[in-house]
Amino acid sequence: xxxxxxxMSFDFMQRALIAGLAVAAVCAVIGVFIVxxxxxFLGDGxxxxxxxxxxxxxxxxxxxxxxxxxxxxxxxxxxxGIGFVLRQTTLRGxxxxxxxxxxxxxxGVLFLGLRKASDRQIDVESLLFGNxxxxxxxxxxxxxxxxxxxxxxxxLLWSRIAYSIFDPELAAISGVPVAVLEYLLxxxxxxxxVVSVKTVGVVLVSSFVIIPAATARxxxxxxxRTTVVAVVIGMLGSAIGLFASYHLNTPTAAxxxxxxxxxxxxxxxxxxxxx
Amino acid sequence: MNESLPPSxxxxxxxxxxxxxxxTRPDPSLEHVLDVDKVSIEIRGKLIVxxxxxxxxxxxxxxxxGPNGAGKSTLLKAIMGLIPISAGTIKIAGTDDVASGHHKxxxxxxxxxxxxxxxxxxxxxIVAALRRKWPIRITAEERDKARAVLAKIGGERLLDxxxxxxxxxxxxxxxxxxALITEPSLIxxxxxxAGVDARGRAELLELMVSISRSDELAAILVTHNLxxxxxxxxxxxxxxxxxxxxxxxxxxxxxxxxxxxxAGFQGADHFAATPDEE
Lengths: 275, 278
What we know:
heterodimer; A: mainly alpha; ABC transporter involved in vitamin B12 uptake, BtuC; 83% helix; B: alpha/beta; Rossmann fold; three-stranded antiparallel sheet; 10 helices; 35% helix
């Protein structure tokens, strides 16, 4: 048990564990809907939009920590834009996401380039790949608050969102406000992705959304069970990856994602054996 | 400003021929389940449904026929409250209040119209219609209700089967059970046998007609298949280019002469069986 207790004696490890569990849980719950809706690419697209939002914030003079407050509405607007294109055109989700992803990433690079040499230095590598072990207490508060709010909203609306994702037409006939729920899910995903970027980085955040959900989809027989399994896989993988990275001295987010991939591979084997 | 294509000379000729056909309407003293009164629907400035009126009495099995682009699907969507109408009124069981009226509609979509990869069992889908939201846990009472309605249509064994593992005919039975569980006044069947094999299709149609008769349930069946119309319809509403061309009994509208007048039988591709219905 010392394998767990020894790293937990450090404050930064406690914060990393809490942030990792919060991000993993909320990404898994939302991820089940995103994967089922055929928008697996959305997490990646919104993470790049978050990069654009943070870059705009930095250009306006905010610190990396405070730029998140500009990135949240910016990314939510991009998410709503993707939703609008999905509803108003016949384009597929990956195409709509790809267009907005390119736009916001290009905007991010542009604004970073426009910064003056005298502006404060930023660590682009940390922004792209994140650093869970360097989560500041104030960042942790934001991550946990956003995760809790998103979880509460999603759990309260879970049955209606699930019905609208199964078949929007049937759900609408039953009185479910399908369009409102879709926009809400997209905006909520944007907020979760922005705060998750602060811990796991732009490049890796979509893995937290997709891999536990995709793994659970291979195992779960109903959507409710799939969601529970996704949360368990997400949180367990996050904790195991964190401790493994501490002892193996490897990058934390990358280690967590490799653990997720191991789980995904095992789920494929199990689902094949079950047939 | 709406726009609609000017009718072709052939279309005008058909309309004139249709007007000469005998068209028997339902007895007005019967209980009205659906009233479509002078309904027009405009989408993005284009008139899709033009001043259509008909009604369905309790227990009648009505076929809504017409070529592609006739406005059938748009009219169905308006009846189900999914799109607004530009003029006229739609009343379901006497009410035009969307929220209360649509509780009285059961809907069976085309088989292809839902995600077969969704991790769900038949019981989940049926109970979702009952609750009007997707179930997390199903109570014993809900399960019994779902089982009873499936048993009624000969599908009790499907209760716990994953939707992804069902055949075309089984899937549509589950959707029929889903539509029936809310005890609707009107059931809408939107090409429900498309993608179902020949044997399953015949069984399914027989089942739908027999339920409509035994439960005195009004039904609208949308189909392109003339054979299906002939086998099932108690009355036919035929739309063309958004207008109601005729509304009468099958024997009045399906005779060789009537068909020639209506659609030019030899070339009536919309009346031929579609490939997946062969």
